[in-house]
Amino acid sequence: xxxxxxxxxxxxxxxxxxxxxxxxxxxxxxxxxxxxxxxxxxxxxxxxxxxxxxxxxxxxxxxxxxxxxxxxxxxxxxxxxxxxxxxxxxxxxxxxxxxxxxxxxxxxxxxxxxxxxxxxxxxxxxxxxxxxxxxxxxxxxxxxxxxxxxxxxxxxxxxxxxxxxxxxxxxxxxxxxxxxxxxxxxxxxxxxxxxxxxxxxxxxxxxxxxxxxxxxxxxxxxxxxxxxxxxxxxxxxxxxxxxxxxxxxxxxxxxxxxxxxxxxxxxxxxxxxxxxxxxxxxxxxxxxxxxxx
Amino acid sequence: xxxxxxxxxxxxxxxxxxxxxxxxxxxxxxxxxxxxxxxxxxxxxxxxxxxxxxxxxxxxxxxxxxxxxxxxxxxxxxxxxxxxxxxxxxxxxxxxxxxxxxxxxxxxxxxxxxxxxxxxxxxxxxxxxxxxxxxxxxxxxxxxxxxxxxxxxxxxxxxxxxxxxxxxxxxxxxxxxxxxxxxxxxxxxxxxxxxxxxxxxxxxxxxxxxxxxxxxxxxxxxxxxxxxxxxxxxxxxxxxxxxxxxxxxxxxxxxxxxxxxxxxxxxxxxxxxxxxxxxxxxxxxxxxxxxxx
Lengths: 293, 293
Fold this sequence. Notes:
The structure is a homodimer of 293-residue chains.
Chain A: H1 3-22, H2 25-28, H3 32-41, H4 48-59, H5 64-86, E1 95-96, E2 99-100, H6 102-106, H7 108-127, H8 134-148, H9 153-162, H10 168-193, H11 200-227, H12 230-233, H13 239-242, H14 254-272, H15 279-290
Antiparallel strand pairs in A: 1-2
Helix pairs in contact in A: 1-4, 1-5, 3-7, 4-5, 4-10, 5-7, 5-10, 8-10, 9-10, 10-11, 11-14, 11-15, 14-15
């Protein structure tokens, strides 16, 4: 196991424990609604967003316990977005992470409500982070609200469904919202969990890293969707094409797309390599570029 | 026009102006998604939640400009809940506030996303309230997340759809979540917008007022649903019964229900009458009891 793989596993384990606590009966009840929230959030996923939050907090001198509630909030927002994305009126996907999607397992109304409750409670979890200052909570909540809203992820979901992309630039703009916004929020929340406000240029470097990583991640997703293996992905291969979703392969050959993903990764790495302790974040970018699922 | 009616009108106007700003192109974009958000939020509703936020802030010595962002956030959360409630997988209502419901006007996927974006941006609006301290933002966001989550409004929506009520107590518990939680959050956010943390007993009195008002409000809703006139309500009369929703009329005669609503109102008023300046809040409780739409 590489140092990155060990760090990813550890971060996922600790995030999982925090999520278990956040979604326990005490915080979400013991109804089928709460069960649906746990089903969609626990025990799956790469926890990339949580890892970004934890590592950026560490990079700027913060304690892990200060980052964990923010990391859990990021994963709750991510889980909510997947539940709603899978609904019949959206992508109508029956499978997610190798098991029935939330509405297949709990019914459509419960899935809708589970997503809603996860989004609301993500903000409660962030605001209940007692290891950071009130000012840090304010910054984190504002960023998370922006990243998840109409000028962030939800706006990206809208564009993905309803607008056509004339060229690669327009597709890039769409991806910056749809997947990029939350990756940026996850990175910034890590920064906010570290002591003291960061200088503007550090925030810019973090955003440049997040943007490069986010676009590379999406390109690799698009490539895997045509090349990948259904069992490894946990969803039907070709489902993006099936639903008419725009991918970089509408504008680039697979080789060109692979090269672009490499360039984005290199740019992401260049942005943060000067910071001492950024090795794992650099490795993450390389790892996501070469992943096969 | 009574002093209360004038105050309600003024509060609604200023809340509307704040909402216009929060949902402007700069904050939500100029897409059909943003249009759906504005359609569902602007130009309608009694703005009772915003009024509670504004008046409780004033009651405890706060400035209106400190309460307005919180009031707008409350109305955004309320608007989101109505959009999702009306969806085909939920109540499947075609009309809302006398016009086509959001999914009828914009399609199901856009309505789902508009609700999602409103919820996320409500927290951004609350966190961007520059007229209150960071500590006040933290308290407000935590309360709003709790009030909207699985142990609040969303939990109430789940119970309303999926569980049966054996008696009036169980129905009361359901209503405390479904409509009561957000009314309580609206009242508390007003308190948090006022300077300095309030003593525990004041918070308890505010919650007692909110709980009494909330249950009375719901009982009157149930009574209007059988007695009311479709044109005044802006939705089909009897729609609650049609969908099998539990109402107090499952357990009480209309006269008993009316008496219970009066008792709840009296209890709400008793909780806050001792506070100088509470006249309008007391009038509001009486007004909601006697409303005919």
